[in-house]
Write a structure and sequence with these properties.
single chain; 88 residues; alpha+beta; three-stranded antiparallel beta sheet; 4 helices; 3 strands; 15% strand; globular
Length: 88
């Protein structure tokens, strides 16, 4: 059974634009703001802070927050070989 946050991130990306479009803007140096309202519908947390650095091969560093790890699992397969992404 997928994480509740995997479902939330998929919903967020469907509401906005496709993941590839968002990644293209991030790669060009733009900041992408994601509304937390959808995440809040899927879970209650004291803090929504989190940070992850990942590559196509996996997580390099993470704060360990479930919602951020779920984001990493979704984005990982969309990264280019040798690319590293910092999301917070």
């Amino acid at each position: 059974m997928p994480s509740k946050y995997i479902k939330a991130w998929k919903e967020i990306f469907e509401e906005q634009e496709k993941i590839k479009d968002i990644l293209e803007r991030v790669r060009s140096g733009k900041t992408e703001k994601i509304p937390a309202s959808t995440l809040r519908r899927h879970g209650q947390r004291k803090s929504w802070y989190g940070k992850i650095i990942l590559s196509r091969e996996g997580v390099i560093k993470s704060t360990g927050a479930a919602h951020i790890n779920a984001l990493g699992r979704i984005l990982q397969s969309h990264l280019e070989p040798e690319e590293k992404l910092n999301a917070s």
